[in-house]
Amino acid sequence: MKTPLRRGATALASGLLAVSLAGCVDSDRGSSSPAAESDCPWEPDDSITTTARIAWQAIPNADLVVKDLGLLEACMPKADISWVQAPSGGDVVKYYGSGDVDLGLMGSSPATIASSEPVVRDVDIAVVWIHDVIGDAESLVVKDPAITEIAQLKGKKVAVPFSSTAHYSLLQALDEAGLDASKDVEVINLDPEKMPGAWQGDQIDAAWVWDPVQSQLLAEGGERILSSADTAAAGRPTFDVGTADRGFVADNPEFMTQWAKAQDHAVEMIESDPETAAESVAVVLGIEPADAQKQFAGLTYLSAAEQAGPDYLGGKFVQDLLTTAGFLLEQGGIDAVGDEAQYAEHVDAAPAESVGE
To answer: According to the model, what pLDDT value does residue 37 have?
Structure first.
């Protein structure tokens, strides 16, 4: 029997979620709020009074630039915008289920789970943005330098955040190597921030994780033997995606346009002025700007025009969700694979398309 992925479907108990949300720390620059230090790159829209709660993750992409520079706050000065950090995409799904966020970054794997039948209770989201196409930014790092291929992990303990894109990539790689995730390898569900301690305490032999934890494990002597770039080349790409509650999107089209414009502006910054963009990412992640800039190489960033086109949200991305769903079904991560129309309902290219209007 295959190891099931954690569904991420059960809403957190209200007390536990309250602790989780209260424990999140926003990064800022000194005593001033980011919004107070930034100007909107275009004419601000002070007609928008939307209340938006946004879940973010510590991943070096444009979402962190938007957050640090306070672009949403600057471009919609009368909106009420708050940010909450999530350890993984599975947690973002939980936040949606308990009604605590309106938008959130998650991997394509939890987005597929949330879009598959039976749908997660009280969760009705759409993928509205592709923050990045994952490459070497998510990798399998091993502690023993004698291990050079995944087949040598038989009998070892491998940590990964369940219901994440890293989990999906790990299971796919184990399967292709002929290893049974429930018998041959002990796959441990572990949040990224807990991995360094487990690594140093010899509690795990390997981890499939993203930056900045990936870089930390590599700096402590770990060796990368496989990455999400390899699984993408094998036909199973993974993405970090922006999602939003479908009701929220329908009720707040002007907000979504401003949100997409801010994301697109930050993508352009990463491409044309990576040094400045890296300063923002470094502030949020608590690392040096030079290290943040190096991490950009492990991800591919897409403009709004590219996202709205046929290769992504405007077309092929639905097929990527279907491919992911098929593999998740084999692994016991979902109960059924819907048809193409079902997944198409959970992909919305309109915010990306609105940027050029």
So the answer is: 53
From 233, 259, 291, give the residue that closes a domain: 233
For residues 179 and 177, give the distance between their C-alpha atoms in angstroms, rounded to a whole number. Answer: 6
On whether residue 281 sits in a domain, the answer given is yes
Q: Which domain holds residue 82?
A: 14-134+238-354
CATH number of the domain enclosing 142: 3.40.190.10
pLDDT, tens digit, 9 for 90 and up, residues 113-143 = 999 987 778 899 999 999 999 999 999 999 9
Asked whether residue 5 is domain-assigned, the answer is no
* CB neighbour class for 330 (10 Å; exposed up to 12, middle 13-18, buried from 19): middle
Instruction: Give the whole-angstrom CA distance, residue 236 versus residue 258.
Output: 32
Question: Percent of the chain, pLDDT > 70?
Answer: 89
User: Which band of pLDDT confidence, cut at 50, 70 and 90, is reported for residue 2?
Assistant: very low
Q: What is the pLDDT of residues 67-112, one digit of tens each?
A: 999 999 999 999 999 999 999 899 999 999 999 999 999 999 999 9
Nearest to 191 by CA among 77, 331, 20: 20
